[in-house]
Structure formats: structure tokens, C-alpha cells
Amino acid sequence: MFKSRYFPRSDFMEAKVGFQPSYAWRSLLAAKEVVKAGARWVIGDGHKVKIFHDSWIPTTKGFKLQDQVGGVDPEATVSMLIDVDTKQWNRGLIYSTFNNYVAKQILSISISVRLPAVTTRF
Q1: What is the domain extent for residue 108?
Q2: What is the pTM for the complete model shown?
């Protein structure tokens, strides 16, 4: 019900207050920053998750990379780190791009063997 009224073409994290918001909707939006602070992406195919902008790496501060890595497009998505043929992380690319700590954190993330077209947040 909230989606159809307040954010029909986006997701909750991008939703705005809207026109004549209900008390319940305003309450949910007030909690959005708390949710955002503890939420991270679950990796499916990685096409929607930006390596340097989104929260997706477990055990790093804010689930984000703290530093950009030279040679990697700042807008690159996690999908570039996945070998589509084997449906596994591209270990060589990950170890050559990130420091050992971050590489191990990335490799600890499970990815779907089916590489779904839609990546979801939790």
C-alpha cells in the first residue's frame, strides 16, 4: 500500500515524504536513516550494486569500501567482480584490485549460483 502511494517507481530507500503523508508513513520515513545505517545489499548478479558507493561488504565500516582503488571506475558495479561463466567471484581480479583484508571479505560473500537478474536489499 505504501509503495503504490508514496514510491511507485523507486524503492523505500529513495522514497520521499510525498503529498499529504499519513502519520504511519512519516513514522516509517523517520526510521529510514536507522535502517540505512545497518542495511547492506545482498549480492545476486551485482548489476545494481556500486562497488564504491553502496553498502555491501560485511565487517567493513558502514559495509562500504573506505578508499577508492586506482584503475577502477568510480561508478563500477559489483558485477565486474563476478565471473559469469563460473558464477563465482573472479578471485584473481579481486586480489589484484583490493588489499588482502578487503579481498577476503568480498570472497566471503555468497553469490547466487543462478545469478538472478534482480539484486535485493535486506
Answers
A1: 40-121
A2: 0.67
